[in-house]
From TrEMBL:
Record PANTHER family: HTH-TYPE TRANSCRIPTIONAL REGULATOR BSDA (PTHR30419:SF28), HTH-TYPE TRANSCRIPTIONAL REGULATOR YBHD (PTHR30419)
Keyword DNA-binding: yes
Record domain HTH lysR-type: where: 16-74
Transcription recorded as keyword: yes
Entry GO CC: cytosol
Lineage: Bacteria, Pseudomonadati, Pseudomonadota, Gammaproteobacteria, Moraxellales
Name by which UniProt lists this protein: LysR family transcriptional regulator
Species per Swiss-Prot/TrEMBL record: Acinetobacter lactucae
Homology family: Belongs to the LysR transcriptional regulatory family.
Length: 333
């Protein structure tokens, strides 16, 4: 512990700034200075200089440079990462404490939502939450999973509504709400459209339209790989609505874990949803926050309401399906 009595005798150090710690945390998360630079909009030389300063100050090596895998943390680097996250979390909590004491809890609530989920649930959640708590100053970050994780680590959002794919549980607290099995989408004219359920063995011979979402693409292809099958991927597309439209137009089938309110595409054509036979790993939807940060009262209330809304949203649509799992029972607050 730092000894205040001997402070005057202590050698003056080139202290590590919070900003430098944030640069280090982002680089550790992404395993690359270039990727971290793109995510936090800071030049690579600035990030590199911050990391070098920390290494020089602490007299340790934080990263090992691997040509194929980018940067990986050293053993001491992993420990320093945890300490930096703790320090940053306590700093953020300090501002929250001061805000609450001064009666500033009406500040903007910053919420991240996975871009696939945003059009389905976000507007309803915010609208209803505002009616209950008169909280209309809510800011949205509509982004990919990686964008949401980076925003959490840099304190740009208070929480994220996302999936459990690729969560670092050493840093992120993920509270699952619903567990959703994979299912298959086909057009109403597809040869499999009359079936209630299909197996992977029924699918691999048909062309597949794959949603090119980070981590979800690997999730889908892994389902086939685990059964020694290779899907016939006709095309991959980042726009999920485009994937749905192409399926409805007969280009091929697709797979998803997310169920829409209406099984129609933007061009008005119908989609058929088929259950996927077998025991397959589900995808969970839940709330992600920083483990080391204590949430203020408003954020806690919003998190609780998100849990309640999402559980009811999927319960209303899936209560007749044995594959749907409500992970946690939510009490109304």
């Amino acid at each position: 512990m730092f000894d205040l009595k001997n402070m005057e005798k202590t050698i003056v150090l080139n202290r590590i700034s919070f900003r430098q710690m944030e640069y280090f945390v982002s680089t550790a998360q992404h395993g690359s200075i270039i990727v971290a630079s793109e995510k936090i909009h800071v030049s690579p030389p600035s990030i590199s200089a911050a990391i070098s300063h920390i290494e020089s100050e602490l007299k340790v090596k934080l990263f090992i440079r691997q040509h194929a895998r980018g940067l990986s943390l050293t053993t001491i680097g992993e420990k320093i990462l945890k300490e930096c996250l703790f320090i940053l979390g306590q700093t953020y909590a300090l501002y929250e404490l001061a805000s609450e004491f001064c009666g500033l809890t009406q500040r903007s609530l910053h919420v991240g939502c996975h871009q696939i989920l945003t059009p389905l649930i976000y507007s309803d959640i915010v609208h209803d939450f505002n009616l209950l708590y008169q909280k209309d100053d809510i800011r949205l970050l509509d982004g990919s999973h990686d964008e949401l994780m980076n925003a959490l680590l840099t304190n740009k959002i208070d929480l994220a509504i996302t999936t459990n794919l690729q969560i670092d549980h050493n840093i992120i607290c993920f509270e699952p709400i619903v567990s959703l099995p994979p299912h298959v989408l086909v057009s109403e004219h597809h040869p499999l459209a009359k079936m209630k359920s299909v197996a992977l063995q029924d699918l691999f011979q048909f062309p597949m339209i794959l949603h090119d979402s980070l981590y979800y693409k690997d999730y889908c292809t892994d389902l086939f790989r685990q059964h020694n099958l290779v899907p016939n991927i006709k095309g991959t597309y980042k726009n999920y609505d485009l994937v749905r439209t192409m399926v409805a137009d007969g280009w091929g089938y697709s797979m998803t874990n997310i169920r829409h309110r209406l099984e129609h595409t933007l061009n008005g054509k119908k989609l058929i949803r088929l259950m996927l036979e077998g025991n397959h790993a589900p995808v969970s939807i839940g709330i992600a926050t920083i483990s080391s940060v204590n949430l203020n009262e408003v954020t806690e209330k919003f998190k609780s309401y998100c849990k309640e809304f999402i559980s009811e949203y999927y319960h209303d649509r899936e209560h007749n399906s044995s594959n749907f799992t409500l992970i946690s029972s939510i009490e109304k607050t």
